Amino acid sequence: MTNEELMILWPWMKWPGEIVNLICRVLILVVLFKLSPCERQYRTAAWCHLATVPLSLLTILLGRIAGEWTELVVVLMVVGIGILSVYANCKQYYAHAAVLAGLDDVLSEQWIKQWTWTKYALLAFGVGLVLGLIGGLIGILIMLAGAIILLVVVVRDCIFTYRMAQAFRALHEKEATLTR
Questions:
Q1: In angstroms, what CA-CA distances link 119 with 30, 68, 107, 114?
Q2: Which of 150, 27, 16, 30 is nearest to 82 (CA)?
Q3: In the predicted model, is pLDDT for residue 4 greater than 70?
Q4: Quick count: other Cβ atoms within 10 Å of Cβ 100?
Q5: Which of 4-18, 78-92, 107-121 has the lowest mean pLDDT?
Q6: 138: Cβ contacts below 8 Å, ≥ 6 apart
């Protein structure tokens, strides 16, 4: 099924999805800006994420306008949004690693390795996409492998974020008992 076919079947699904996406982006921005006094890289990640919000809205609006130049502009904007998002994630991973250094060095290293996984997964997805567009089954399989690795990365992000919260909670409890 294509996106157009899905929109015919469930036209009401597009806007709620875009609204939830926008709300999640705003929440990420709030968290990153709140964390930015702890580590400068959080601020960089926040600004990159902030830049993607109006670009995404403009892309949605331009996508509704028909024309041969608008399609090119939308594709270029989507590529720009992708580059900003990847750079923001890189800064986030390195900021996580920096704030954990000295507190939990193993988890800090895992965040650095997480960025390496993300790079290779995105590279595999991109190469697979190009090869798939050329018309090869191998390209589609490479793209599928990249997508599966990205899914694993997202799950690991959640696990590492939980572990990070546990580490800081334990530090807070330890400091609280020392001040009593």
A1: 25, 32, 19, 9
A2: 150
A3: no
A4: 22
A5: 4-18
A6: 131
